[in-house]
Amino acid sequence: MPVSAGIHHITAFVNDLQSTVDFYAGVLGLRLVKQSVNFDAPDVHHLYFGNESGSPGTIISFFPQEDARQGMLGGGQVGITVYAVPKGSLLFWRKRLTYFQIEVMETTRFDEKYITFTDNSGLIIELVEREQGPNSWWSFSSVPVEFAIKGFAGALLFSANSKSTERVLVDLLGLSRVAEEEGLVRFRSGGELGNVIDLNVENIPVGEGGAGTVHHMAWRASDQGELEEWSSRIERSNMQSGRIVDRQYFKAVYFREPGGILFQIATDLPGFECDQRIEDLGGRLDLPEFLESQRATIEKRLKPFVVRALD
């Protein structure tokens, strides 16, 4: 039986292209590893940010639309996206966020200290210090490598049917239930990044998708063979699973678990270096072969942006 190593990537809706790039590259110091488009709506950017190579477990991606309605956080969503930073770096991040006039709150969960803030679209982000997982060597916008975001620590899920979501996490995805406190249950996978998931105990009223909310969270599969196993298991679990789709940098299958959260299983390979050298990642618009003939039209419709340091 396959067991997921943890989060592969998280994809969210945002409403301003340049502000999003400034926030994730300029403030958080992540690397733009791929410029592409929404394959189903190619007049919309699809931007991927991560560590130096966009490794699984570090990738957050966005569909920026200026006319997007504002979402409402609630059940059936990833409530908080949590990043891991090296031990001893929270003070640096607290000072940096304050410098950029980003309001920061502090909280404690399961004996770990978190700092909480929102991006320009209202997406809730947390940072927590973790020893586990490799450090990033990417440095940008005065974020030194010793404080650079490693990748995902995990996520806090908001479920409209918590017991059913728990069964999916444990019985389908293979996570272990490791702790419970103050209305939350904690689960852990075997990976080094994106491996800690918290879930509400009491059901949460359903939210509405839109800017500032997560579209889906993807779990890792090592290869297509494992992905096909996942697809069969999802169908046997009476959750509708679509066909396997090719997203250029990974293959994936989607399913919506009973608590309303849209999940995806995504393969680790081929990764973002399949069509670009690592030193060139993010420097151009990359399109799948079936859209290449429309490049001139697509480029004309897409709004330009720049990746810039905000020192």
TrEMBL record:
Keywords: Dioxygenase, Oxidoreductase. InterPro entries: Extradiol_RC_dioxygenase (IPR052537), Glyas_Bleomycin-R_OHBP_Dase (IPR029068), Glyas_Fos-R_dOase_dom (IPR004360), VOC_core (IPR037523). Residues 6-130, 151-268 form the VOC domain. GO terms for molecular function: dioxygenase activity. SUPFAM superfamilies: Glyoxalase/Bleomycin resistance protein/Dihydroxybiphenyl dioxygenase. This is Ring-cleaving dioxygenase mhqO. It comes from Paenibacillus segetis.
